[in-house]
Amino acid sequence: MNNTIDRRALLGSAALLAGCATVRPGDATGAERAFVRREGMRLMVGDRRYRFVGANMWYAAYLGADAPYGDRPRLIRELDALAAMGVTNLRILASAEEGPLRNAIKPGFRTATSVNDTLLGGLDFALSEMAKRNMRAVLYLTNFWEWSGGMMTYLSYVNGGRYIDMNDPAHPWPAFANFNAQFYGDARAVGLYNDWIRKLVTRTNGVTRTAYAEDPTIMAWQLANEPRPAGDVAHAVLPQFYAWVQGTARLIKSLDRHHLVSTGSEGLKGSLERPEILLAEHAMSEVDYLTAHIWPNNWTWVRQADLPGTYARGEALSREYIDKHIGFARQLDKPLVIEEFGYPRDGGSNDPAVATQYKDRFYRLIYAAAERDMAAGGPTAGTNFWAWNGEARAQHPDFRFQPGDLQYMGDPPHEPQGWYGIFTGDTTVRVVADHAAAVARLPAAG
Q1: In 3D, which of 411, 388, 391, 387 has the Cα closest to residue 399?
Q2: Quick check: helix, strand or coil at residue 446?
Q3: Is 128 left (phi over 0), alpha (psi -120 to 50) or beta?
Q4: Which of 171, 375, 384, 439 could be stapled to 54 by a disulfide with Cβ–Cβ 3.0 to 4.6 Å?
């Protein structure tokens, strides 16, 4: 694949976006620009219930950077395309720890001893452009997984350089996750992480000159992407994990009185399949809402080589997973956001020319469940699909990201480029837009 956008893809995108919401930069009302807050199971903006249709776009700060690896014109085009679909919320990477891990994105936001001010400027620019389109951001502050450095890299900063690469045959699962869990009890590693939080949460946007803590474009700070207490129960030191969750959330709240805080958890899967862990982690008063991620292919609920034969099982398990998390949210009296869900293209292909029949069907399942719960006044507040690939195209025939590649897309560097993300021209664009229209029709007081 090359990095040019062919005419067929552009025409397909135009057709799929026809009739979607138009973009009117700068038309936000005072109510729309108020902060999102929580009232029991509801997210609110002013006196209106806040519901959203969102996307994951981890790489927004990279495109926004004024650097050779940035592409501000593309970022603007991608935000316009998402806004036209009705997407109003983006979940964005706000930290990447540069270090020894094989598959971690470079450059990072930080090293052990330095900060990448250019990449922070890219985040500033992305937030400023989102504000023009009435979008809100969820910013996650580190990663349990290796593709942005994350907790393993923090540990390497303080333990003499020791680490494990994910998917290393010499250290099969769950060795990576169990090693990673040492982070929660390592005061030096957590101290470096807390230093980053202080720097970011107290930052002033260099474009808008608005302090992050005073910017309603930000909906929530998130402790990490998919933090797990360990890879298995035997290695989970739960008091350390809970102390990290509560301590981090309290630190953020002490620096920022306006914004919500969430964990970034997968939900039950990220809680070692133990409801008591999920409930304990999210019952803390400092945590404002529950998150759930749904990955039928990663969790072997379906097999991408046989979607026709396995889809029904994955569908049933996905419905059950959603229902369980709606129940957990009701028990906690907190909102629920289904903030990651992904599905492969037909046949497990990574090629944007291949159809997305089963992906579209899966998205409709997620969206129908969210719409039903929203209409019933339930805790579901929003959805963020994983992820937006937009106009990016893989640079290599094997669909693998290589150092120096600049066609950032929602599929992170350690995964095949095109595996789960939505490209311009995909029929999934219309599925998202239809869901956004349905959510927009719901009563604001529901």
Answers
A1: 411
A2: coil
A3: alpha
A4: 384
**pTM to 2 decimal places:** 0.94
The H helix count followed by the E strand count for the chain is 12, 13
Token look-up 């025939």 returns 397
Closest to 308 measured CA to CA, from 367, 364, 357, 366: 357
Omega within 30 of 0 (cis) for the link into 107: yes
**DSSP three-state, residue 201:** helix
Chain length of the chain: 446
β-partners of residue 261 are: 221
Contacts of 69 (CB under 8 A, 6+ apart): 62, 107, 406
List strand residue ranges (DSSP E) for 166-262, in order: 218-222, 260-262
Q: Is 329 left (phi over 0), alpha (psi -120 to 50) or beta?
A: alpha
Which helix (H) or strand (E) segment holds residue 7: the answer is helix 7-17
Is-contact 166 145, C-beta < 8 A? yes
Which two tokens mark 203?
């930052």
CA distance 404 to 73: 19
Q: How far apart are CA 237 and CA 234, in angstroms?
A: 8
Tens of each residue's pLDDT in the chain, 446 residues: 333 334 344 444 445 554 454 433 344 444 468 999 999 999 999 999 999 999 999 999 999 999 999 999 999 999 999 999 999 999 999 999 999 999 999 999 999 999 999 999 999 999 999 999 999 999 999 999 999 999 999 999 999 999 999 999 999 999 999 999 999 999 999 999 999 999 999 999 999 999 999 999 999 999 999 999 999 999 999 999 999 999 999 999 999 999 999 999 999 999 999 999 999 999 999 999 999 999 999 999 999 999 999 999 999 999 999 999 999 999 999 999 999 999 999 999 999 999 999 999 999 999 999 999 999 999 999 999 999 999 999 999 999 999 999 999 999 999 999 999 999 999 999 999 999 999 999 998 86
| CA distance linking residue 53 with residue 162, whole number of Å | 41
Q: Is the backbone of residue 45 left (phi > 0), alpha (psi -120 to 50) or beta?
A: beta
Which pair of structure tokens corresponds to residue 403?
């150092």
Q: Are 78 and 57 in contact (CB under 8 A)?
A: yes
- In contact, 221 and 227? CB cutoff 8 Å: no
State the Cα–Cα distance between residues 168 and 172, nearest whole angstrom.
6
Choose among 172, 194, 178, 181: nearest CA to 151: 181
Task: State the distance between the two ends of the chain, measured CA to CA, in whole angstroms.
Answer: 47
Place of tokens 């992906």: 359
174 prior amide bond cis, ω within 30: yes
